[in-house]
TrEMBL record:
Pfam families per UniProt: HlyIII
Cellular compartment(s): Membrane
Membrane-spanning ranges: 44-61, 73-96, 108-129, 144-168, 189-205, 225-243
Lineage: Eukaryota, Metazoa, Spiralia, Gnathifera, Rotifera
Major location category of this protein: membrane
Superkingdom: Eukaryota
Key words of the record: Membrane, Metal-binding, Transmembrane, Transmembrane helix, Zinc
Originating species: Didymodactylos carnosus
Family, as annotated: Belongs to the ADIPOR family.
Protein name per Swiss-Prot or TrEMBL: Uncharacterized protein
Gene Ontology cellular-component terms listed: plasma membrane
GO molecular function: metal ion binding; nuclear steroid receptor activity; steroid binding
Recorded topology in the membrane: Multi-pass membrane protein
Sequence positions that bind Zn(2+): H94
Amino acid sequence: MSYLHCSDVLDIYVEPYIHSGFRLPNQPYSYYYRSLFSLHNETLSIWIHLVGTFIIVLQTFDHILSTSSPFVISYIIYNCIGACVMLLCSAQAHLFHSRNLNDHLRSFYIDYLGINFYGFISGIVHYRFSRVDSSYELFNEPFYYLFLSCLSLYSLSIACFSSGTIFVSKLPERFHPGTFDLIGQSHHTFHGFIFLMGFFQSGATYRDMLQMKNQITTRHLLKDITYACVTLTLEILIVYTCLKLSFTRLEKHYEKDLKKLNKHFNKNNENAINDKDEQNSIKKIE
């Protein structure tokens, strides 16, 4: 496969300090599926989450085989679905986003949907298994839990600000633009940590489940499944609405750039056709 320089594609497809390895736009979907097995600037971003999905599924099977509680098994699968949806939505976004503006918007809106969905699912699971009920009235007071939650405030604040700083700093490609286009760019590292977050969070949640497996009932499970279905439905409606509203504005914004790039590609195609005709003519003369 041949790839493009950042100057040959719309800037909406370009990450800062990434100069090469961009796939051709407006190609059939089969072209982008085939690009899974070639090296370009999105290859690692895609495969980190595809392989990560497989690993989390294996982790889930291992947890299922390690317990006999039907409620723990149900919540393990519940949590696994949330994590896999997040990773697969991200993988498809990086696979198809550069096809055209419509696919770019749709792919990343689906990506954001996956992130929100996993956040909601993992939040419910964590809520259900966050603590064992205490028989001591002293430790059931709201003040006690408020105090415990505040103990981690500073460490959580440092973690949040650090993650944001790392994400926007674009290291290491900021210092060597073009060097880390295919391997080693900051977004690859970001994807790796997203997978690790899902993996370790699933493992920690499983250990919490084992402590509280006797306190969960069918009512809790059905209630949480209903929450998940309602949330997913609302997220799909919101994503669809945002996609419809934003595509027209985005298309108008890039109208001139699209015409310019189309002329550029048409000219290159004409030159390529002329070169082939000349080669055929030379062969006939010979």
